[in-house]
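Input structure tokens:
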């Protein structure tokens, strides 16, 4: 112990250390003895610390084991473990509203439940309905094949159920990867009920080249951005015999060497053709074939060449008895679409029209949308003469939504809407108001209409569009705020 040494020696050594003085030989010997003694004490303390540390480690280990046992026991008595398998199945099935995402999103169903425990995992994998609707996104070569194998495993989990697949390849994938994807599609062709593909044409070429009858269960097909530049002629032979196909969506620039001859237009109830460079004459031919069509979105090119070809050959009236919704998008240098007057649409309830270059609506087109007398929604992204618009509104008593976007309402129309003589069931309105002076008359129409008879509906949703900034007067601003407080939802959009 330090106490065994002369206290004066301690003091002398401390003073020498503090003042950086040289120790005498006698004190140096004493200092060495003190160092040796301190080292022994350090070793003794280190030994005690090691013993205590071993004891602490043992206690920590015991605690961890007790915590694990506690969690295990709590899991054993957890309420969800009491759920019988049939009830678990019902719960899982009721949660299967969204598609299975690949790559997996761990926070989304069903990937969440298969992480809970082995029982839940086995129950989930035994339910084909959880795995029959897949949404796959391929965006990286490093993950492509791994995701593809996972898609195949999900297909296997769907067992005997029809498969719905929405797959997107949104990058320049390696050719061998796309080939593997195409092989998978072809091998599961009979199982597909709904199929929507966005990617290179090579990804669907094998499937589309299968013999007729290979996709006998397919009800819905969507092909997007599947451009092909090989110059080969494709005619989609697999669609020649697709007895259940009812919904067809095509949105890609089809080269001239592609043909639509094998598409089963007569049996379709839903058709969407966009971004395809289809010309006006072909668009009419397609509609003429679609005898069962209920819903149609059709984009086509029209111009002086198409107009001349239409005028050169006589047009025959065609009736689409079941068509309820028609959305036409016209591109190109539009002079006229000669076949519009030759379409009979007795069931039409929703119509939308847009034309490049702000081409105005023509009088000869009006009967196409008014003959049914059932029109409930009208969207015009083209200017229209006020007299023509009033004629359409006067023959559309069931109209509930009117979206004019760039067209204005005349004073005559506003007066008729105020009393309910025009569009008495209208509840949603979008129209252009480019001059501040005309805004009060529109607000007056809204208020007068609401205060009228019960047979006239309240136009609660209103959007006023304008192409130039305008400053409303204070009275109009106060009136808009008042209408908002009374239940109107009024917005202003600058185009």
């Amino acid at each position: 112990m330090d106490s065994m040494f002369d206290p004066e020696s301690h003091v002398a050594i401390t003073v020498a250390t503090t003042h950086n003085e040289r120790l005498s030989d006698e004190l140096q010997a004493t200092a060495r003895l003190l160092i040796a003694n301190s080292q022994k004490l350090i070793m003794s303390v280190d030994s005690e610390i090691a013993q205590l540390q071993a004891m602490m480690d043992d206690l920590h280990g015991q605690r961890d084991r007790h915590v694990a046992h506690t969690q295990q026991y709590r899991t054993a008595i957890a309420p969800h473990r009491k759920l019988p398998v049939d009830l678990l199945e019902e719960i899982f099935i009721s949660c299967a509203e969204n598609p299975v995402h690949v790559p997996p999103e761990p926070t989304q169903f069903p990937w969440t439940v298969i992480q809970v425990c082995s029982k839940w995992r086995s129950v989930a994998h035994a339910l084909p309905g959880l795995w029959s609707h897949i949404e796959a996104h391929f965006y990286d070569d490093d993950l492509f094949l791994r995701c593809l194998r996972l898609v195949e495993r999900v297909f296997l989990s769907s067992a005997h159920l029809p498969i719905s697949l929405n797959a997107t390849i949104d990058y320049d994938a390696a050719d061998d990867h796309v080939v593997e994807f195409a092989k998978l599609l072809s091998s599961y062709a009979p199982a597909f009920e709904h199929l929507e593909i966005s990617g290179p044409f090579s990804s669907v070429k094998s499937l589309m080249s299968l013999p007729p009858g290979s996709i006998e269960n397919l009800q819905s097909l969507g092909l997007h951005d599947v451009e092909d530049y090989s110059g080969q002629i494709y005619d989609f032979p697999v669609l020649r015999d697709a007895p259940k196909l009812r919904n067809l969506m095509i949105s890609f620039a089809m080269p001239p060497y592609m043909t639509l001859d094998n598409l089963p237009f007569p049996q379709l109830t839903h058709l969407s053709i966009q971004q395809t460079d289809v010309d006006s004459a072909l668009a009419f031919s397609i509609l003429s074939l679609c005898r069962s069509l209920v819903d149609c979105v059709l984009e086509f090119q029209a111009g002086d060449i198409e107009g001349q070809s239409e005028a050169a050959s006589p047009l025959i009236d065609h009736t689409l008895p079941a068509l309820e919704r028609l959305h036409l998008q016209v591109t190109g240098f539009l002079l006229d679409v000669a076949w519009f007057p030759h379409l009979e649409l007795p069931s039409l309830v929703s119509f939308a029209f847009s034309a490049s270059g702000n081409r105005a609506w023509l009088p000869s087109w009006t009967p196409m949308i008014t003959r049914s007398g059932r029109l409930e929604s009208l969207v015009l992204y083209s200017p229209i003469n006020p007299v023509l618009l009033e004629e359409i509104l006067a023959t559309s008593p069931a109209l509930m939504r009117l979206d004019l976007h760039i067209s204005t309402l005349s004073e005559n129309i506003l007066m008729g809407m105020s009393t309910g003589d025009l569009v008495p069931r209208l509840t949603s309105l979008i129209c252009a108001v480019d001059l501040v002076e005309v805004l009060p008359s529109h607000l007056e129409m809204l208020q007068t209409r609401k205060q009228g008879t019960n047979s006239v509906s309240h136009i609660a949703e209103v959007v006023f569009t304008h192409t130039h900034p305008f400053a409303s007067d204070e009275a109009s601003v106060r009136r808009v705020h008042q209408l908002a407080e009374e239940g109107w939802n009024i917005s202003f959009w600058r185009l």
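Confidence is low (pLDDT under 50) at residues 304-312. The first helix runs from residue 7 to 19.
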